[in-house]
Amino acid sequence: YLFGASDDGPVRAQELFRSALERSPRFALAYSGLGESYVMQSWLGSRDRDTTVSQAKGALAKALSLDGQLCEARVLAGQIKLFFDWDWAGAEGEHRLALELNPGSDMAHREYGVFLSLMGRYDEARIAWTEALGLTDSLPDQSPVEIGLTHHAIAEAHRSQHQYAEAVDGFGEALRHLPPRSVHA
């Protein structure tokens, strides 16, 4: 939730993941979340890229050593291969493995959609994001930000294919879910 909640969300999330790991050092899911927070910081450019990549890879290695079948760790592996290693085939393999491990993971579908979109496979990306949206909508504790961002991603795929009416509808739906952000001077 914190990743999309605010600009400092990844830092706040790291604090919580570290706290969880202090209590339970063998908590693979917390290592995976910690790794994803480093990926987010690299995307946002809020910290040194080399440092965050190294930290993300370290957290991933620890998560996989504890649970090689953890869907979230496989999603993280796909993100690292896609964004940092530029290993397209490896990234797709990790995302597909994540979906095999947990076909009900909205995160796995959403991140696979990101991969597909970046590869220019917009129709497949929309399918993955629509699947993620269906899974997200069915969970009572999901962040409206995640729902809004998924609608936004679907709209962007439509826009990329010059399907402007569908894009406008999708952006409108995204705005319905995304909270307005404060503007600070």
Verbal overview:
- With 185 residues, the chain is an all-alpha fold.
- The relative contact order is 0.08.
- The chain is built from 10 helices and no strands.
- The two termini are 26 Å apart.
Query: Could you tell me the number of beta strands?
Result: 0
Write the element-wise H/E pattern from the N-terminal end onward: HHHHHHHHHH
Number of helices: 10
Rounded to an integer in angstroms, the radius of gyration calculated over CA atoms is 16 Å
Subunit arrangement of the protein: single chain
Cα distance spanning the termini: 26 Å
Helix content: over 70%
Query: What overall form do the CA principal axes indicate?
Result: globular
The pLDDT mean sits at 89
- Pick out the low-confidence regions: none
| Fraction of residues in β-strands | under 5%
Structural class: mainly alpha
The major β-sheet equals:
none
